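Work Package 3 committed the consortium to producing structural models of liganded targets before the mid-term review. Because experimental data for this complex are still outstanding, the team generated a predictive model from sequence and the ligand definition alone, so that downstream docking and mutagenesis planning could proceed in parallel. The input record is reproduced below exactly as it was submitted to the modelling pipeline, together with the SMILES string for magnesium ion.
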Amino acid sequence: MDTPHVIELQNVAYSYGSDALLSDVTLHLAPGSFHFLTGPSGAGKSTLLKLCYMELMPSAGQMTVFGREVSDLRRDDIARTRRRIGVVHQECQFLDHLPLTENLSLPLTVAGRDPAEEAENLRELMTWVGLSTRAQATPPELSGGERQRAALARAVIMDPELILADEPTGNVDWEMSLRLLQLLVELNRLGKTVLVATHDLNLIRAAKSQVSVRVLRIADRTLQLSGADL
Ligand SMILES: Nc1ncnc2c1ncn2[C@@H]1O[C@H](COP(=O)(O)OP(=O)(O)OP(=O)(O)O)[C@@H](O)[C@H]1O
Ligand SMILES: [Mg+2]
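The resulting structure, written out as tokens with the ligand in place, is given here.
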């Protein structure tokens, strides 16, 4: 049997109100693939990522996540499936009164793992994102780029198979964007499936020189594979 797609959407529609924001969306994310999602502000990029994370459910069409039809999933199935997905939200949200290291270990605690046993992992992860010296800082004490890197670290602490990153380089300079891209490329080389929503065509160009990426674009309420040369 073929390996199932990590995510598969077939003729999916989504609307917040009476008008469809997305319609007839078909998407297949193969294991280990790297996709960018582009499109104008308000086109529905974050909405599409929320569908992939099952924060929103399709208004119409079929959608499977790790081979399971989402409309068949019960609440605990959804919670279990979500642990296989790491999300970098468009606005990084942290608990401002807790030091970074505790913010990062929160997903482990929520999943019932013992943070003490994961301490070494956590230290390695902080080093990987270049934040080992900031472990005791609280999120408001971090710079924008540090927070973005922390958000990526938090997304991958559970060793997810799929990473959904919503504008992960939203508020950082070019050098930091490349650093964050580097981290996403490394994750992809480790076999993780990556989907990144971004406005930044330069970022996509930079990625194309390192890994095989596909570019999806939301236009006219649907998803198109962008063939345009960037
Ligand atoms: N919870 C909501 N209720 C109603 N409308 C919403 C909701 N969330 C988003 N929208 C609307 O849906 C549209 C798509 O929003 P979305 O956040 O998916 O766009 P986006 O492509 O991510 O935009 P950006 O590039 O600015 O992040 C927008 O018009 C937005 O106002
Ligand atoms: Mg968005």
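Reviewers should note the following from the model. The chain has seven helices and ten strands. These observations will guide the Year 2 experiments.
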